[in-house]
Amino acid sequence: MKFTINWLKDYLKTDASLAQIVEAMTMAGLEVEEVIDPAAKLGAFSVAKIIKAEQHPNADKLRVCQVETNLGKLEIVCGAPNARAGLTTIFAPLGTCIPSNGMELVAKPVRGVVSNGMMCSYEELCIEGDSSGIIELPNELEIGTPAAEALGLNDAVIDFEVTPNRPDWLGVNSIARELAASSLGEFQDRNIITHKGAFDCPIKVTIEAKDACPQFAGRLVRGVKNGPSPKWLQNRLLAIGLRPINALVDITNFISYDRARPLHVYDAKKLQGNICVRYGKVGETFEGLDGNVHEVSTSMCAITDDSGAIGLGGVLGGASTGCDEATTDVFIECAFFEALGIFQTGRATGIQSDAKYRFERGVDPDFVIGGIEFATQMVLELCGGEASNLEIASAAPSLPQNIIFPITELKRLTGIDLNASQIGEILGKLGFTAKDSGNGNLDIGVPSWRGDCKLAADIVEDIARIYGFDKLPLATLSAPKNRQLISSDKSRFNIARRALASLGYNEAVTWSFVSKEAAVLFGANSQDNSLALANPISDELAIMRPSGLINLISAAGRNINRGLTNVALFEAAPIYLSDEPDGQKTVIAGIVTGSQRHFSGKKEADIYSVQADLMAVLAAMGIPTGGLMMQNGASTHWHPGRAGSLKMGSKILAAEYGQIHPRVCEKLGVKQAVFGFEIFVDNLPQAKQKPTKARAKLELSPFMPLSRDFAFLLPRENAAAELVRVIANVDKNLISNVQVFDNYQGHGVPDSMTSLALEVTIAPKLQTLSDVEIEALSTKIISAATKIGATLRT
Question: pTM for the whole thing?
Answer without folding.
Answer: 0.66
